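Lesson 9: reading folded outputs for more than one chain in a single document. The general rule is that every protein is listed as its sequence immediately followed by its structure tokens, and records are never interleaved. Here is the first one.
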Amino acid sequence: METSAQVRPERLYKPQMWGMRRGFKLFMHLVSNYKVIGQSNIPKPPFLLTFNHMSFCDAPAIAGAVDYVTPGFGAKKYKGKLKGMLFYLGSPVWIDQDAPDRRALMTALKIIERGDLFAIAPEGHRSKGSLTQGQEGVAFIATRANVPILPLTITGTEKIFKQRRPEVRVTIGKPYHLPEGRAKGEQLREYTERVMCALAALLPESYRGVYAGHPLIPEMAAIVT
């Protein structure tokens, strides 16, 4: 299977076929009580989609909510494995989770620069519940691409196949921008905190994890809700 870096933009980055989206939605409705909130907030590409990551079922949950093919990072350790097949819902850019992977970051940036969207889970790993510390790769991409950031949160996917049709909610906030200019050093950390607090603002308190009570949450809530 071709990766996003190998496929021509006109072939890969276009609205998903109606039948594919219907299939993703059908799967989510079969395994959960699935609801999407805020679809009208989705802009036209290019934009950077950020989301909290809890389960392998996040991929079909997002695919059923967004009208566009959604390329994003996939952990190299899952490439060629059964679980890794879910990443192909959005055409993956394989990334090394255990070390800084500048090549993967630059590939994501090139995809956005073509005029397409790219999805990133700033935590870098599945949290299996509440938010964990965000990684600075999201701010690196966002401040170099200078495109809207679309916050999307998911709750309940961590319960799929553990409970009978758990409640799953995909909440899409309003897009926002980080300050222009290529962030470096301490700015990367500061901007990453803003991205994470935008997600926390859309999540119930029990899902906010390490960001619970963060002073930036009210400020970001006023922007994205």
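And here is the second record, again sequence then tokens.
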Amino acid sequence: MKLLNIDANPKTVKGQKRGYMTAVLYLAPYKASGVNLCPTAELAGCWQGCLNTAGRGGIAKRDDIITTDAGELPDNAIQRARIERSRLFNEDREAFIDQLIREIRAFVRKADRAGLTPAVRLNGTSDIEWERIAPVLFTTFRDVQFYDYTKLPKRFSRALPENYHLSLSYSGASQRYADMCMKANREHNASLVCVMRTKAAKAIELATGDWSDIAVDGDETDLRFLDPAGSIVYLYAKGRARHDNSGFVLG
């Protein structure tokens, strides 16, 4: 079982035009593995519209399903692999981290052969505080740019590794959570990532929205560490998020 997905995502592969090769770790989000790997998913209202079911992760033959603590998921190889990886992370953390280090080493060599700069996203479909869980990753690979989206505003109030960039995923599902996001933006210059319901809604915000002067089109690449600090990043909804009414998806 491999842990890392290397530029097999239609969005991350766009980064190659900017000189980067991207590896992403996809785990089972929220409570899908039996352990909650997204602590603020309920507060932010994002667990039902999670990108976990976007693309091939949302397709199943004969409408087969996997029943989890987070509800039903399409029964396919992608979902089963994410659950299996998460079980290894939950049950044998040392073995998981050892394998992750080996795979990152191999990925760095692969990127070097291609003449590209390696970037690693550890939370493709999870929200783990890697700076606390496995600080060894950032010291072992000081020349690798790590990055993530997070819904944990508290992470911005602590010192992060120099090679780890975080963007804060905004949601209007809870006024408390929305206020926490705005505070992190104001006090720590955190970039906020906003999911719009449609491409058209995203285009309006980019062109004429209240934050259009600091707006970034987050669908052009996944390389959030290249965005100016304090940016407002707009994406359009994909997968189940297109039908989300929690307040997580805007517009």
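What the second record shows: The first strand starts at residue 4 and ends at 6.
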